[in-house]
Amino acid sequence: NRPSEAVTPSAFSASAPGDPGQLTLEQERERWRARLAPQALKAASDAGEDDPESALQSKKDVNGHLRFVLTSDLTRLMRQMRGLGLDTVILPEGAPVQQLARVALAEERVVLTRSRKMQLAGRAPEQLYWLRSQAADAQMREVIDVFGVVVDP
Predict the structure, then answer these.
(1) pLDDT in tens, 13-42
(2) What is the pTM of this model?
């Protein structure tokens, strides 16, 4: 699939309207930015500043509301994300999908995966983002774009 094309509904376990598997890259961007905006504002206000813009000093502060858990096949992407100061964990190879879902929900993390077959139970599918790009550099650009990662604060 090209980034602007919709992904087939079979890409995710949920089949409700608004299923992430049916969204274009632009729709995904809007979905995640709207969902994460309150967390970004809370992170800014927790820093103790009246003006959220001035409260966000470093990359870690700016992107502190972004927390990710990655499948084991995304090691190169994880290194790049950590290099930008993003809170990123990766599950060991062979870790069950249920563990991925538990970590995502308990720690309020976004699940990044390349697997179109991944099926998460309960509320976990809401935390899932399917990477369209194949190469780590392109995946990093996709994460920056979709989640609004600030690279140079």
Answers:
(1) 333 333 446 778 888 888 887 877 766 666
(2) 0.69
Residue 74 corresponds to which tokens in the numbers above?
């995304």
Instruction: Scan for tokens 């563990």, then name that residue.
Output: 99
DSSP line for the chain: --TTSPPPGGGSS--STT-GGG--HHHHHHHHHHHHHHHHHHHHHHTT-SSHHHH--SHHHHTTT-EEEE-GGGHHHHHHHHHTT-EEEEPPTT--HHHHHHHHHHTT-EEEE--SS----TTGGGGEEE----SHHHHHHHHHHHHT--S--
What is the rounded distance in angstroms from the CA atom of residue 63 to the CA atom of residue 86? 7
CA pair distance 87, 123, nearest whole angstrom: 21
The residue with tokens 């990123």 is 88
